[in-house]
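Q: Is it fine to ask for two folds in a single conversation?
A: Yes, each is treated on its own. Send the first.
Q: Here.
A: Result:
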Amino acid sequence: MRKETALKAVDILRPVAHTAFMEPATAAPFIEFTRSRPHQVRSMIETNPVAYVPVGALEWHGEHCALGLDGLKADYICRRAAEVTGGVLFPVMYWNAFHTLRRPFTFRAPYRLFRKQLRGALDALATWGFKSIVVLSGHYPAAMVSLLRKECWRTAKRFGVGALGIPEQALALDLGYLGDHAALWETSILMAIDESLVDLSRLPRDTGTLWERKVKHGIEGICPLKGASAERGREVLTLIVERLSAAAAAMRDEGNSRAAEEIYAAWKAAFRNLLEAGRRAYGTDSAKEVVLYTLKSLIRDRHL
């Protein structure tokens, strides 16, 4: 009840009505930084100073999902939000992700390297004149979520701009999406983006317990065989894009991070009771299973 009240109090996260999947109510022009000439970027900063920076990881997501899942999510969401607000879409920050899984075909960088890259990017964007800066990460270990918020807060305070740094599920907590890895939600989102990038037949019919799914199959959360679908993915993507574009527009128009702070407050409320959040995210009623899973993960991976 407390979480629901907190969510309803946040204007950016208000319930919204949707019609066709991902069809923006109004289309605004946006440009891609990598495909633009300098005068085009200057013009956009003068007329619509919104920057979208997707963040991903090159990481194993089980045998059933594409290796670039995190960045594919972030790029897709930012692209669709940019269609609503306009602005500049930057390329995915892929290479320096930290706290990735120790799995095949996975790249891992030091925390300090990513922090340096992120801070440099934020400082540059604010210096160039962007008034609304959105950093959306599809890769979200706990340290990443904390770092995004801290660095965006620093940028907002130093330059007097709006800056938001979040994982995508921060905008869909009321749907029950608290974040997972190659599990029900991420798999559904990728199916909605491009169903050819998911092959559930690569998974055995029984993926085992919560811990067995993680160790054997790289699945952290509810087994995707229990309801993953493009329809579920479309529902959550539509809500995320609606709310992200609203936040980006609010920061641009208000020239501050009020919208970002409201989203952070909702995130904090959703995770106030960590045990309950764990049960919901992992799809289990057993508090003991959540605690044991968390402890084993900390020992095995040295991070959450």
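Q: Second one now.
A: Result:
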Amino acid sequence: MEELWKFIKVWSFVFIALSYCYFVPSRIPKGIFRLLSIIPILYLFIILPWNLDTNLLRGPTTLYLVWLGNFNLLLFSFGKGPLSPKDRPVSFLNFLALACLPIKIKQTSKNNNNSSLESSERPPLRLAIKVLVLGILTIGCAHKESIHPKLLLFCYCGYLYIGLEFTLLAVGVTTAKLLNLETEPVFDEPYFSASLQDFWGRRWNLMVTNSLRVIVYEPVRKWGQLPAVTATFVVSGIMHEIMFFYLIGVKPTWEVTLFFIFHGFCIGLEIKVKKLVNGRWTLPLMVSRPLTIGFVILSSFWLFFPPLIKGGFDEKISREIVACLDYFSMQTTHCD
């Protein structure tokens, strides 16, 4: 309960800080002077997550404030990004939500209403399957001593994907319903990815992808596609390294940065190969999809998960989940 009050306190500061950004810096001309007026908020967002002790709350808060929030405020300083749309003013509540929550307002047209309706009929089944899988993975991770280490890494992959998707989806859907917004999906079934470009650019954690595209890829794109891809993955690696530091609190090993640089290099090769074959030859989806997901999973075994495991993140998050389940079970028993 004490941690919950800390969480409320942190997000009360966020509300005050973003209210200031809406009413004060927004009236300063975009550029260096608006940036100077926002720098104290950038610093505040960096230190606020340290007030939380549990990774279940500190992890998402770090993502929302240190990554999404600070990136969006930097863009806002120069009149870019979701806080500075060119076609309409942003209301106060929308500004608060778009600043640091995982939502992107969907651009709709009358022509695609039918297709969006058809695509919305299937998700409930997929959602139910994911809930079932997450439950199985939770039980498995709670008894990891009886699971082979390699199989446990597969469990971590599934747990990371479904847990992250549910966390971002819950926040995004709740916010969208409260503000009556139609939003873009946070994930787009990444297990259907037919290439690394497809995985990172169009299916995995699209809110982070969008922020990196606007703040890194598009400015560097004028020097060429490959430099833009490389710069994007370097920044992504550094930001993930920072996220890991918040989660495990140990000196960075730079393995996760290398993971993203490696994937950026592989996407560069993929782009070159696609240009060479020029559409004359493509792998069947039944081949390209398993190859893509297999490559992502195996490379994550090599570089992504080891720092988290060595830092004890898996054990800590398991204890926190069990503690949460015990707490809710106890509350349910008292209610009965």
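Q: Anything structural to flag on that second result?
A: Two points. DSSP finds 13 helices and no strands in the chain. The longest helix spans residues 149-179.
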